[in-house]
Write a structure and sequence with these properties.
Helix content: 25-40%
Largest sheet: 4 strands, parallel
Bound molecules: zinc ion
Number of domains: 1
Order of helices and strands: HEHEHEEHEEEH
Shape: globular
Distance between the termini: 30 Å
Structural class: alpha/beta
Radius of gyration: 16 Å
Strand content: 15-25%
Number of helices: 5
Length: 149
Amino acid sequence: MSAYCQQGALAYFRYMMHKFLADSMVGDVARNMRILGYDTEYYSDMTQVDTLHYAITTGRIILTKNQKLCRYARDVCIIYAATTHDIMKKVIAVFNISTDIMVDKTRCTICNGEQRKFDDKKMQCTSCNKIYWDGTHVVHMRHTAERWA
Ligand SMILES: [Zn+2]
């Protein structure tokens, strides 16, 4: 196996490993994680009980600014910090997440859907069909993501 193949397999494995659930207060965290390529669900109207139940039953890791949720950390993995920036820094450090944004791996920031190539300059969400121009949301995010590493 060439070094390239190994890197490709590792990159693919990286995206398969962890799934996240951003609680109702951290929609911006969900958006960031989707741009980094991670399956991250977010529901603005989800209660604390529903958040915990959903994370446990689907094996998702909770990302939150709500310290009260940490009481239940024995049943579910929770990443807590007081700010979006600190949540991103912590989740990236704990799960050894790369901040190199791979355009073909980013997920739809609206619905968490996977993206497929639409044409040479555009990607399209496979769920909601939103079109992303190459770089429209990624260029800005690359600068931001450097601060989380
Ligand atoms: Zn979508």
